[in-house]
Amino acid sequence: MIDRRAMLKAGLGAAGILAIPAVFAQPGTSRTRIVFLGTKGGPRVGIGASNPANLVVVNDTPYLIDCGMGVSRQLVAAGVPIPSVKYIFISHHHSDHNLEYGNVVYNAWAAGLSTPIHSFGPKGIEAMTRTFWELNKFDVETRIADEGRPDPRPLLIAKDIDADGVVLKTSDVTVTAFRTPHPPITDNFAYKFETPDGTIVFSSDTAYNPKLAEFAKGADVLVHECLYVPAVDRLVLKTKNGATLKKHLMDSHTSTEDVGRIAASAGVKTLVLSHFVPGDDPTVTDDDWTRDVKKNYSGRVILAKDLMELKLPV
Fold this sequence. Notes:
Blueprint: E1 11-12, E2 18-20, E3 32-38, E4 53-58, E5 61-65, H1 71-77, E6 87-89, H2 95-98, H3 101-110, E7 117-122, H4 125-135, H5 137-147, E8 156-161, E9 165-170, E10 174-179, E11 189-195, E12 198-202, H6 210-215, E13 221-227, H7 229-237, H8 242-252, H9 256-266, E14 270-277, H10 286-291, E15 300-303, E16 308-312
Parallel strand pairs: 2-9, 5-6, 6-7, 7-8, 12-13, 13-14, 14-15
Antiparallel strand pairs: 1-2, 3-4, 3-16, 4-5, 9-10, 10-11, 11-12
Helix pairs in contact: 7-8
């Protein structure tokens, strides 16, 4: 078990980067793993894959990346106590990435949260945090008085990201944000996690962006979103706003063939496909997702599935 009290000593360094002491796992245990909590792209909720969310765990400290609908339940299903989450990173303010942001913190509080959670995201995350607590003011203050719970509002410490660069540095992990286009959204960040066991990059939702390959250069694992064009064509045929939706999807996501180009250019050791667009077409096979990727990338390719774990080093 780790000593969570050590996390209370958090403070901001001279450069404005959050610097927090490391908490170490027992010798001989696997230090770094990725848990794919939700792998379906888009805001629709179905009975299949859950909406976007990922987890990096280093020395038993969980770092949550995005908070799509269902993330609280997925954490529980993965055997990760919700109050153990100490850091949240939001890539952008599409609802499938931030809809359960406040609620996952509330659910941590309901399960006994008593230590801080630091959250990072594009401009607006600080305002969203204040608004969430205002929305739930009656419930929170009632439970503080009626149930003797600590006030959760000071425990969620949000920070807007307004530029590329390091946003968090501990003795174990350095997290760097990188702006990548997701039209029409410009405040959209990929994240790089440099850990003792290797480097992990999460692409965020992104249009094809060769500069992302530079950001991910030499990474051990690149988790990249993907779009399968034939399935998009089928999707828009049964959608009232089909033409508009197709333009958005094609302009703001990366085709499987282009994902292969990014992975090859970056020279990553392992490519993980996730945030599947569309993510709920049962006729799309695993081979469909990987076929065009392999035209350009000859390395290891993994298709993420909900609750799949990947341990580093891979």
